[in-house]
Amino acid sequence: TGGWTIRDRSFDRAATDTYLSNLTAKFHSDALDLFEQHKADPTGLKTAYDGLVQSYRQQHVFPEVDGAFTANATQFGTVLRRTAYTHYDAKVKDQQHAALLGNMASREQSAQRVLTLDPHDPVAEETVMRLRDEDLADIRSQVAAGSITAVQGEQLILKRQQGAQASLVEARANTLANADQVDAYKERLRKDFASGRMDGVSDFDAIEVGLDKISRQKRVEGDRAMKGLQGDLSDFLDRQQNATDGSADWAAIEAKGKALG
User: Which contacts qualify for 42-46: CB closer than 8 Å, 24 or more apart?
Assistant: First the structure.
């Protein structure tokens, strides 16, 4: 009203408070929209937020509410920027964690390619363990940087150590001729584990599961091959009864028999 009576001043004060309240609510809404666009970008948020404050002060804020509005905007901006920094840190950690897992997967593929050549070659084993050690160094680096927790790091280390040995063991088991050889190999490894000669293995049961699977596959393959050999032998005997020359067939059957042990 601009009057000087107590009633006039009270009315003006109430109107100013109402205006400031509505203005602040609208400003907060616009500020939160900006925050959604820059919630993991503290620098971008500060630039956009300062521009929003300046725009409001030029277009909507009159002298009577300028002090209160500016104080509120400063406080609200501090809260939003702190939250943006938190989101930014979490985003960076997620990116670093993803990069770590990607690098580990790439090295594991490299190890598998080496093992397909000759898993019994000492160079192959050295390569697998070198790749493992590179992964362990990366994991410890991520823990030191705070990208993953110490507990997460320890879990990854144990898993990677176990996985490196498991891949080597299974690759070698797959080259064995039959299930009996795989089972004997497993028992030898069990003794090595019991005497502490399997570096990085903390769970032999997991190794045993993989070897048992290979053993079952070898047994199925052996049974299938034996049935095939028996069928070939039966056909050969039938041809012999019919006085058919079977010398070449017998040589093939004899070779299959030797392969099956």
Answer: 42/81, 42/84, 42/85, 42/88, 45/80, 45/81, 45/84, 46/77, 46/81
